[in-house]
Design goal:
411 residues, three-stranded antiparallel β-sheet
């Protein structure tokens, strides 16, 4: 979709994506009939290698999609494993209304903006209403609650995790052969339960079912980084970007994984690439701020954090980052003022305990930072998954209290 209105030539696009060949085509729908025209083009010389037209009932659209993939694999003489061929020859009838609603929900969810993710909810609910046994609808619903809790702090933990887990378990029950259902359950196990072993099993199952599922690779990268396996985490995050190279969020997450691996040069380069894709996302500026802090360039970090605060509409996690940098830079009054803002916010909306931890670390108040870490532990705050890897906690690592919390979390 990134190239939908692009004036770039196919050879240019191929170079950007690192692709030898590109599939392009069109989809026409009339009532419940769908026609796909697909063609395979060599990006090196813009030469057409293959073309075909498919027509099916809308109910068979997934089977048609698999047939296109199988034909292209045959055309370019890719050797499919027996498992891959079985997946591409299985019959997957779908309820057209449920499938269409799910695709619309997925479109808005993939925007990874609060407004977009909120809009996805209605479509996932429509999909389930149209077909109560549609596994992907429940997977989408689970991912909605997960992202609204983890990324946007829109729900208290207990409410979000209960709804997230119920939807994910239902998704696996109805569609255990689908990678999306295992990825949804893995996110619950990791962020809600702090069960890294259980999450890893689900992610490995998802990747085995669909090795090209970028979201599973992204979450697996986060898990590997959290558990102290930075090299493996980088490989998984890179694989996620390879599978969806124009996603700003996957590119930003790769920058985050580089940062956790202490590879600040590559982290900054990756964030700059993300910023060029979409400069209006808060984490396209919060991430570089983290890197500049580590480089000791606090003035630049503060400038990036302020931009993140502005773009997010004063979200607590961006305010916390700014206060942290203010504290490190000796701007104590500014940091304390933001702390008062966070405390006032918490009276009418969820504010994570970890947001206060960062502020007190910046102020050099280890006692208060550890006290708020204990509160975060009591709240089962998902951000504690970063304790082992994030450089922000380096000044606390020698403290026995900090070590005890890391042990109790299971890191």
């Amino acid at each position: 979709m990134h190239y939908k209105q692009s004036s770039e030539t196919l050879p240019q696009i191929g170079r950007e994506l690192g692709a030898d060949a590109i599939v392009e085509g069109s989809v026409f729908r009339s009532g419940n009939r769908v026609r796909i025209t697909a063609q395979l083009i060599d990006t090196r010389n813009d030469r057409h290698l293959w073309a075909h037209t498919y027509e099916r009932d809308l109910r068979d659209v997934i089977t048609m999609q698999d047939e296109v993939a199988r034909d292209i694999a045959d055309e370019i003489r890719v050797k499919l494993t027996p498992q891959e061929r079985a997946r591409l020859t299985a019959f997957h009838p779908v309820n057209p209304k449920a499938h269409e609603a799910y695709l619309k929900g997925l479109y808005y969810w993939n925007q990874f903006t609060e407004a977009g993710v909120k809009k996805s909810l209605g479509f996932f609910q429509q999909a389930i209403k149209a077909d109560p046994n549609y596994a992907l609808g429940y997977a989408g619903l689970a991912n909605y609650y997960g992202v609204m809790y983890v990324r946007f702090e829109a729900f208290p933990r207990n409410e979000a995790c209960a709804k997230d887990e119920a939807a994910a378990l239902k998704a696996v029950e109805l569609g255990g052969s689908l990678a999306e259902t295992h990825q949804a359950l893995a996110a619950v196990r990791m962020f809600c339960d702090w069960d890294l072993q259980g999450a890893e099993r689900e992610l490995q199952q998802a990747i085995q079912l669909n090795p090209n599922y970028a979201e599973a690779h992204r979450i697996y990268a986060d898990l590997l980084a959290a558990s102290g396996r930075p090299a493996q985490a980088v490989a998984e995050a890179q694989r996620a970007v390879e599978n969806d190279p124009m996603s700003p969020d996957l590119n930003a997450d790769l920058g985050w994984i580089y940062y956790l691996a202490r590879d600040y040069g590559r982290a900054l380069g990756q964030y700059q690439k993300t910023d060029a894709m979409d400069p209006n996302r808060p984490w396209a500026h919060e991430g570089p701020g983290d890197v500049y802090v580590r480089k000791g360039q606090l003035d630049v970090a503060i400038r990036e954090y302020r931009r993140a605060v502005e773009l997010s509409g004063n979200e607590p996690w961006t305010l916390s980052a700014l206060a942290y940098a203010d504290g490190l830079a000796g701007k104590r009054a500014e940091a304390l003022d933001i702390l008062r803002q966070l405390n006032a916010m918490s009276e009418h909306r969820p504010v994570l305990a970890m947001d206060r931890v960062a502020v007190y670390i910046g102020l050099g108040d280890k006692q208060q930072a550890l006290a708020w870490l204990e509160k975060a532990y009591d709240e089962h705050d998902w951000e504690m998954m970063g304790l082992k890897a994030d450089p922000i906690y380096d000044g606390l690592r020698s403290d026995p209290g900090f070590q005890d919390i890391v042990r109790r979390i299971g890191l």
